[in-house]
Amino acid sequence: ERVPLELSPLLIGPTYVEEMRHDVGEGSGPWKAKVLGEFPEDADDGVVSLSALRRCMRPDQEHAPEDLLPVELGWDVGTGGDRSVVRERLGVKAGRTWYPKGADLMPQCGEVVRILEETGATAIKIDSIGIGHGAADRMEELRREGAHQARVIRVNVGEAPTKPHRFPKLRDQIWWEVGRMMCQDGAWDLSGIDDATVAQLTAPKYALDSSGRIKVEPKADTRARLGRSPDDADALLLAFYRAHGQGAAFLEMWRDHPLPTSNSAEIKAQAQDQAAVRRLERKMRGGVRFGNSGPALLSRHCQHRWRNDACVFCGGPKPED
Fold first, then answer.
1. DSSP code of residue 300
2. Which residue(s) pair with 216 in the sheet?
3. DSSP single-letter state for residue 211
4. By CB atoms within 10 Å of each CB, which of 20, 182, 206, 310 scores lowest?
């Protein structure tokens, strides 16, 4: 069939096909829709439903200013040829993406500090497995030196999940509860993500293990099918992940304000005054107070959950409306 001359610029060419093959992989939803001209279907064993994800990509979404807070970053640290990806979260909306360059971590950390300054992000969540552990260490060190003020949150996706009866590892829980459930619930605005991220989000498959728990396929299997690592998707999920409870915030605060050792001269000098010792310990712990129920975080560290008129985590009073 002959194509009218005025429509010829709309036809895809070999360059576009190769770019899509590299960016989204053959067989992905964007490949089927934009290269083959087919209507992609949701995979029965896919973690993230393409149709649910598309509903979150509507360009006409409007948000109140408070819905665009907090500003946080997710950093998937590249290793073994994979690139590093930093993704911005603006409350319910997926923001910008950066790709820190350099095989060495130090230049990458410097670039991430610049991104923190540019965005005003209050927290950065780092995949702390492997090379990410060193990146988290350096970012914490830079924070103590005053280079940035963002909280550094380590996310070890190989750890046990908070719901071990449902998921074998934290990675499975994050992909399911952030990737899948937020799409199904329409809880985030993904209008700013590109085709490559769509392909990466919809690529992983899942199955049930022998205990009936949800197990997401290994990252290597997704990489083999896509032809590239799903780094953009991982950074996006990190940006929107919220650790349950207060353990992460407590450990972070403890690293920033370590107690003096038991033989510290500063402690021994006040050994005769037990009240002074307790005051000093509270000061050195940087905001931890002690009572009959043990240590609790002050409200500035707490992700409050209100029950009646008090927070169930820190015990602080609920502010008046």
1. G
2. 206
3. T
4. 310
Q: Please name which of 161, 90, 76, 178 lies closest in space to residue 126, comparing C-alpha atoms.
A: 76
Q: Is 280 left (phi over 0), alpha (psi -120 to 50) or beta?
A: alpha
The answer to whether the Cα torsion of 130, 131, 134, 135 is positive or negative is negative
Kindly list the distances between the CA atom of residue 124 and the CA atoms of 86, 257, 293, in Å, as whole numbers in the listed order.
9, 19, 30
Strands 123-127 and 93-98: unpaired
CA pair distance 249, 122, nearest whole angstrom: 13
DSSP 3-state of 70: coil
Residue 308 has pLDDT above 70, yes or no: no
DSSP 3-state assignment of 56? coil
Q: How many residues does the chain have?
A: 321
Mean pLDDT of 290-305: 44
Q: Measured between alpha carbons, how far is 297 from 277 in angstroms, rounded to an integer?
A: 20
The DSSP code for 93 is E
Contact assessment for residue 290 and residue 282, using Cβ atoms and an 8 Å cutoff: yes
Q: 167: closest CA among 77, 67, 280, 47?
A: 47
End-to-end CA distance of the chain: 66
Per-residue pLDDT reduced to its tens digit, 158-184: 999 999 999 999 999 999 999 999 999
pTM for the whole thing? 0.67
For 215-269, the pLDDT digits (tens) are 999 999 999 888 888 999 999 999 999 865 444 444 444 444 444 444 445 444 4
Instruction: State the Cα–Cα distance between residues 283 and 289, nearest whole angstrom.
Output: 9
For residue 154, what pLDDT is reported? 95
> What's residue 42's pLDDT?
62
Q: Report which of residues 272 and 192 the model is more confident about.
A: 192
